[in-house]
Amino acid sequence: MYPHIEPFEVSTLKVSDLHTLYYEISGNKEGRPVVFLHGGPGGGTDPKDRTFFDPTKYKIILFDQRGAGKSTPTACVEENTTWDLVKDIEKLRIHLGVDKWHVFGGSWGSTLSLTYAQFHPDRVLSLVLRGIFTLRKSELRFFYQDGTSHLFPDAWEKYIEPIPVEERHDMILAYHAQLFSEDEETRLRAAKAWTRWEMATSKLFVDPAHIAEAERDTFASAFARIENHYFINEGWFRDGQLLEKQEIDKIRHIPTVVVQGRYDVVCPATTAHELKKVWPEITLHIVPDAGHSSREPGIAKLLVEATDGFAHL
């Protein structure tokens, strides 16, 4: 990964009467533009996200999606759908005077990257994707109901703890009731438990510092509420929409690299495998000693190699 750099521009963009997005630009002012689409939804960006790109070659554009990070209002789910985010990306592109750009996204960021590219294939120079997630019912069920629970039973016990036994047959729905409760204490307790579950399962080797992020009230609230809002609505997609042939045909010409951890239990490798089957033109790397996180060494190395490889486009 490249050394840490500071942005040369930090600003906001009002995208609706309600929402204002935070964005920043770093690297080479005359470089090839790349937009970083963060995960969650609701995760927000981090200064370390700049380090996937050669700052001498790329103009690096990071922004926080609606309700996430430094965007306002925090944790807001009103006017916050997949289609709103796709429109926001276009508004940002036009606002910055960018004709075409590279698109980089992992986890939910891969979902949004694929969606944006399918809506605006003429604006995408390349895709670098990590931890493929397409918001199918089977993917949600694996992580939030019956799958990862078999591999992390200790973390699962803490995750289900706030939920009454009679409601545990549908964890996303049960959490929705608490995350949107009128009682602030109930909301925050649920947000931290929801967030802790993902942080505890994101790396091959569990990182206590990563889990500790769930204790930050503002982060946990935005992360949990927005994720749950998207997931209970199944992203407003048809089940499997992003993998449908007619959707893939729209982007088949775009050079694409996918990096996938073999032991990713948040966004299991089966989805990346399905993407490769319907889109054989992509380059798919399965990292044998990694989970979900972009910070794991094998994943980070391949992501940087991919962005280096596309810097001339």
From TrEMBL:
- Spell out the SUPFAM superfamilies in the cross-references: alpha/beta-Hydrolases (SSF53474)
Residue ranges of every copy of the AB hydrolase-1 domain listed in the record: 33-293
User: What is the predominant subcellular site recorded for this chain?
Assistant: cytoplasm
Protein name according to UniProt: Proline iminopeptidase
Q: What is its EC number?
A: 3.4.11.5
Active site residues per record: S107, D264, H292
Enzyme class name: hydrolase
Catalyses which reaction(s): Release of N-terminal proline from a peptide
Q: Where in the cell is it found?
A: Cytoplasm
Molecular function terms, GO-annotated: aminopeptidase activity
Q: Which residues form the signal peptide?
A: none
* Any Pfam family matching the protein: Abhydrolase_1
Cellular-component GO terms for this entry: cytoplasm
Identify the domain of life: Eukaryota
Q: What is the lineage of its organism?
A: Eukaryota, Fungi, Dikarya, Basidiomycota, Agaricomycotina
Q: Which GO terms describe its biological process?
A: proteolysis
Keywords per UniProt? Aminopeptidase, Cytoplasm, Hydrolase, Protease
> What is stated as this protein's family in its record?
Belongs to the peptidase S33 family.
